[in-house]
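Objective 1b. Sequence-to-structure analysis of Succinate dehydrogenase.
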Amino acid sequence: MTSTIEAPRSPYTRSAKKRGLNWEKWGWIYMRVSGVVLIVLIFGHLFVNLMVGEGVSALNFAFVAGKLASPFWQTWDVLMLWLALIHGGNGMRTLVNDYATSRISRGILKGAILLSVVALIVLGTLVVYTFDACPAGSPADLLPALCSTL
């Protein structure tokens, strides 16, 4: 009993003479490196938020405001945000390349992924670096209780 395995479907053809940057190789390397760095960042984030101090019961607006006031934690959170979003976007791009059959649908889906990743990175970075728990000129009754102690 013999069976023939069909050649895998590949949407791209690669010329032997093509020179330049191998984006697939660098995307593969990025996924491995960012995955390891993300493990350290995520578990550090979880350890500090859930284990240090009073644990989960200490998580409130004041805790987050205090963390986001520190340049160290701002950098930590932004690095985690950027790596996670680019890592996830690259993974989604790989899925689109594997399963989208037409060139047009592949382009539209990859464009949507790029747009959403860029938008989330910009918005998330702005939130981290411009967060102010006690904005000047706000009505006192709308401000959190921690603002009256500052």
